[in-house]
């Protein structure tokens, strides 16, 4: 873990993976379960493709080292923590994380809550060259925002938290966004710790994300 400081003076922990001298960077944004073993695994795996990867602990504004499991109790605790952090404060943490790459091209990839935050970063900041948003349930409400970088999105047809009507509304509002829908995939299909994990859908979505970043992080 390293420590960073946001523009408002808040200090927070960041999990780091990969070579610090890598020429491209990725910010990995957590679900509502913190920078847990799943998110650390994601960061390590993506670092293996030649990126320096940083995963900020955005729950640090509520409680440090907050890692939750995929249970009803974990979901409740995560939702409670998220509700205590205004999104503008979270964006300060993500901006500080992007700035830690010292001008190198940086992409952002987020899952669940992090998928929505990746969209917010794409539309409300100028620091990212590309954004990959995985099953962000809050994107539909913000679908009319204008992205400042190329954006890719991934959704599942069986995600009960994101109805197909929301996905189609996003597609209609954002014809320039590369939007993929995975038939039969549920919410969290990219997380090996969840019962909804689908290896085939995760593999395809990650390959698409990697190709997307390879194209845009130059």
What descriptive keywords fit this protein?
218 residues; alpha/beta; Rossmann fold; eight-stranded mixed beta sheet; 6 helices; globular
What would you note in describing this structure?
The chain is α/β, with parallel strands linked by helices and 218 residues long. It has one domain: Rossmann fold (3-Layer(aba) Sandwich), CATH 3.40.50.1820. 35% of the residues lie in helices and 20% in strands. It contains six helices and eight strands, in the order βββαβααβαββαβα. The protein has helices spanning 37-47, 72-83, 87-99, 113-124, 164-173, 199-216, and strands spanning 2-5, 11-17, 25-29, 52-56, 106-111, 130-134, 151-156, 178-182. Strands 1-2-4-3-5-6-7-8 form an eight-stranded mixed beta sheet, with helices on both faces. A hairpin with a 5-residue loop joins β1 and β2. The radius of gyration is 16 Å and the shape is globular. The chain starts with a strand and ends with a helix. The model has no long low-confidence stretch (mean pLDDT 97).
SSE inventory with pairings:
Blueprint: E1 2-5, E2 11-17, E3 25-29, H1 37-47, E4 52-56, H2 72-83, H3 87-99, E5 106-111, H4 113-124, E6 130-134, E7 151-156, H5 164-173, E8 178-182, H6 199-216
């Amino acid at each position: 873990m390293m420590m960073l400081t946001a523009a408002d003076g808040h200090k927070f922990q960041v999990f780091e993976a990969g070579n610090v001298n890598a020429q491209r960077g990725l910010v990995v944004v957590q679900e509502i379960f913190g920078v847990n073993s799943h998110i650390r695994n994601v960061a390590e795996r993506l670092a293996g493709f030649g990126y320096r990867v940083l995963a900020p602990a955005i729950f640090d504004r509520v409680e440090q080292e907050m890692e939750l499991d995929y249970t009803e109790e974990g979901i409740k605790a995560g939702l409670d923590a998220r509700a205590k952090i205004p999104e503008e404060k979270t964006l300060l943490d993500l901006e500080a994380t992007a700035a830690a790459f010292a001008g190198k091209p940086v992409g952002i990839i987020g899952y669940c809550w992090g998928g929505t935050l990746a969209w917010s970063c794409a539309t409300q900041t100028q620091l990212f060259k590309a954004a990959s948003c995985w099953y962000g349930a809050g994107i539909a409400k913000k679908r009319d925002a204008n992205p400042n970088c190329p954006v890719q999105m991934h959704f599942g047809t069986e995600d009960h938290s994101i109805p197909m009507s929301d996905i189609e509304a996003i597609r209609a509002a954002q014809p320039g966004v590369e939007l993929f829908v995975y038939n039969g995939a549920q919410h969290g299909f990219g997380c090996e710790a969840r019962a909804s994990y689908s290896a085939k859908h995760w593999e395809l979505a990650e390959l698409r994300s990697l190709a997307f970043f390879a194209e845009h992080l130059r």
